[in-house]
User: Fold these one by one.
Assistant:
Number 1:
Amino acid sequence: MFSWKEIPIGAIVTAPGSAKEYRTGDWRSQRPEWDLAKCIKCGLCYIYCPDASIGWKQDDGYPWWDEYHCKGCGICANECWTKAIHMVEETE
Amino acid sequence: MAKKVGTEVSFAAAEAIKLANADVIAAYPITPQTHIVEKLSEYVADGDLDAEYICVESEHSAMSACCGSSATGARTFTATAGQGLELMHEVLTIPASSRLPMVAAICNRALSGPLSVWGDHSDMMGVRDTGWVQIVAENGQEVHDLLISAFKIAEHKDVMFPVMVHMDGFHLTHVIESIIIMDQEEVDKFLPPFNYDHKLDPDSPVSVGTYGPPHIYPEIKKAQEVALTNSKETIKKIWKEWGDMFGRHYNPVETYKSDDAETILVTMGSFSETATLAIDKMRAEGKKVGLIRLRLWRPFPFAELRDAAKSADNMVVLDRAISYGGPAGPLCSEIRSAFYQMKKRPQVVSFIGGLGGRDIAPEEFEEMITKGVEIAKNGSENEYEMLGVRE
Ligand code: SF4
Ligand code: SF4
């Protein structure tokens, strides 16, 4: 962690893409879980995720989940029309 | 060669910005600042100043445009007053924390309501804690000189803060004075081009004004506060350089016959010049009175003030703003707290006057000093006295 003496002038961030290092997933109280047997690979969860925490697996085309940045909002579970996603309590 | 001309102070202000070769001016016209920005837009339209003049739709936008402009490394200027400064307020804290140098001329105007276009310091006090360097001018020459030197202060690598130069609305902005207008060559010698190390540049990207979660916010604030406090030494150095080059000297605390004074009057802004008349008269009568004018409002010049007032038993402070329902006037409160820890400290008495453009005559300054000494001796049940209000 920075001491106040190490703060760059104006708290400017000089490394591009550094927001990635901030793990917003730490805020989560619930996490989505997938039942891939019900998933039809429609991509709605990917479109709706406000944190860009869902992507696509190259090999099988199923959704991929970014556990470091997902804030656990539950939107994906709400939008998935085949109910392939449900929210469970975050215990980690 | 610099030349002495009779000119409206607002025009001398605009001339200063032209001489400083500002790159971007973003401003919204508001009385009594209008003549400054009108003149600047003329300079730009006529090709006399190679700058981008952004006609914004509000002061909020003006300050937002200034932040962006400064972040690209452009020399940036704006001007406003009263409610305009209030509308700008939300954005004012941003260039201070992001350390974006720029200069703003504030043509001090009373805050509404009732609606007033005339001068006092209520707008200045409203933006006290926005983190800007704040300098107060007393006459037209100071407006001209302090605006040019404000760019050097703002952009100095040991400062890197936005700077406000306060000038009293109408009492300064709309009067015609004899002012030495600087010569371009001289200004160029004094003021180097703005060179911003972290400017927005696609080849070397930076993020300005990012998010500061709890684990970093207090560290950022401390770094900002220490930098602002430390900027005082650089400000003094730059003013000394100006004095050495051009013979007009500026200090964080200006004094007038205060060396051996038992009672010191404290003022800020254009009324200080009127106050000197009262001091002269009382001195001629053998009274040991003197005057201190605060030029640097932020960072507050604690050491210089304590030193300037070391002979004083009494200090009588004029505020041109009210802290509603609070203690003395804001300037007086700060002067009091500057002395509170001292073993030998003067009695500090608060007067509030000159609100909403009301004049204060030399005789009233005299009455204020006399009454102030009496209150210092006998006390008063009022937190402050209000000057010249009809009963
Ligand atoms: S819970 Fe919210 S943040 Fe997490 S993956 Fe689903 S939509 Fe994205
Ligand atoms: S919304 Fe449901 S069905 Fe569609 S891809 Fe996401 S998990 Fe699969």
Note: The pocket of iron/sulfur cluster (ligand 1) is lined by residues A 32, 49, 51, 53-54, 65, 70-76 (CB under 6 Å).
Number 2:
Amino acid sequence: MLMTGEQYIESLRKMNTRVYMFGEKIDNWVDHPIIRPSINCVAITYDLAQDPEYADLMTVKSNLTGETINRFGHLHQSTDDLKNKVKMQRLCGQKTAGCFQRCVGMDAFNAMFSTTYEIDQKYGTKYHDNFVNFLKMVQEKDLVVDGAMTDPKGDRGLAPSAQKDPDVFVHIKEYREDGIVVSGAKTHQTGSINSHWHIVMPTQAMREEDKDFAVAFALPTDAEGLYMVYGRQSCDTRKMEEGADIDLGNAKFGGQEALVVFDDVFIPNEYIFLKGEYDFAGMLVERFAGYHRQSYGGCKVGVGDVLIGAAALAAEYNGAQKASHIKDKLIEMTHLNETLYCCGIACSAEGQATAAGNYQIDLLLANVCKQNITRFPYEIVRLAEDIAGGLMVTMPSETDFKSDMKVGKNGETIGEICNKFFAGSPACTTEERQRIMRLIENMCLGASAVGYRTESMHGAGSPQAQRIMIQRQGNIEGKKALAKAIAGIK
Amino acid sequence: MKCGVKFCGGCNPRYQRGDAYRQIKDELDDIDFDYAQEDVPYDQLLVIGGCPACCASHEQYTAENEVIKMWDESHIESVKDELLKRNSNKGE
Ligand SMILES: Cc1cc2nc3c(=O)[nH]c(=O)nc-3n(C[C@H](O)[C@H](O)[C@H](O)COP(=O)(O)OP(=O)(O)OC[C@H]3O[C@@H](n4cnc5c(N)ncnc54)[C@H](O)[C@@H]3O)c2cc1C
């Protein structure tokens, strides 16, 4: 059953999710002005699936049930599916100019499906069945699932088992006949609060001494003992200002990250997907990261599309659109953005079937994709800021633009003064210019910059993590052989 | 004539596909347009793509005539003409 955006929002109200922000428990987090934009962002993944103009990307037939499901719950069955995933993410980025949060779950599903299959093959465990049953439920109910990988990690120089406080990595605290009790936390969790369930995975490859930390499982977001502390974003309290609209830049949509705490949470056996088979932790991480590095070749491109459009409008509103360097900068932004898309499509087109049957991306190309993502959005932002001019960060508030307070010698109000001095080209009203400047601010250094900039840097792994993979997959020996053959070296 | 309509997913359309469809539909009121469904047989299938890849899936639908595809605003007129022609052929 496909839910509508409204039904999704209503489904969240039925949950007893524990959320804390600014030192307080937030009971009605669904309608909280700081949180709601991120919920709207997920809701649009439901609404687009209902729209015939987008359904071809947003929905797909499940290989598990034969039913039409939201693509965010799908196991990729072909390279076309992998490409369609990237296209869907671009679309969602275009419609929200923010992080729509649902891809971490999708990437976890695909990594978990193939890894549990291989664990079972080696150890005779039943994790794959557990996972497939779980995913069928997710698909049938059209749920949002957070993919929770990153642990707080404490001292980065120490292994999980060597940490002073074991809670800095999620671990099994107690083994029971009917399940396990887990303790610890996951940081930076995208969309955690407005997910129905979480899939928890280890954050890195593990050794034998880290056995208790090699654990993967699913649990409902309102499970007993689970709670979240909401992550601050740049300019977040602007959303609390009365009547805030223009100053938000993007009033409707936004992203969300949280600290997720596991305060001795019981996980029944049927939701466990890895329990001590430490030699598979690395495989799971590598696969999840691979899919997620592909994801950014879609979502960040869609957001980039909006930023390029905003920069082009800013140029028009400033009256500078005919300048050749402005045109060239827009070309450069487009070139960078489409290069990212090329990477997303390329690693999908070169994908291959796993032993379990679902498709995975080409890992080398997915890592190249993400490495470029750690750079190009920053350059796109730099060019957008160049084109926009300083007004995007120095403009008075929307309250000033609307103020009736008389301040001028001839009785001019603050609003009149702002409208006089911030008028640009006759092609736009001052308010339109204000709006586009605030949108650029929002994406370049406001709330959406969390997703467009810093998430581009660290999300799915910091740049060095990709370089290690590129080194591993890059086939330097093969390249040396090519050079030797041409140079006549035996 | 019963015409099933299928849009591509719209990841980066180069024109307003919905507007193009409305323009075609509004001018051809003899034709019974509907969003394509799998278990419904159509006389005609119209696939509206947003770019030359025109990647919308349509093999799952059944239609008597060969599928008509468009992926550019400039196709609107020729699509209208072709649909009109096929509609009048059906009437004969
Ligand atoms: C906006 C945002 C959203 C995110 N969403 C999710 C999510 O939904 N799910 C999820 O699981 N994760 C998520 N992440 C987490 C992301 O995967 C991590 O940020 C990333 O793996 C880096 O970890 P870290 O932030 O702890 O940085 P650190 O690990 O502290 O890295 C900081 C720097 O130190 C270097 N470094 C760290 N350890 C070592 C070492 N041992 N040796 C050498 N150098 C080292 C790194 O290369 C990097 O340069 C998100 C992150 C962001 C910013």
Note: Chain B has a mean pLDDT of 95.
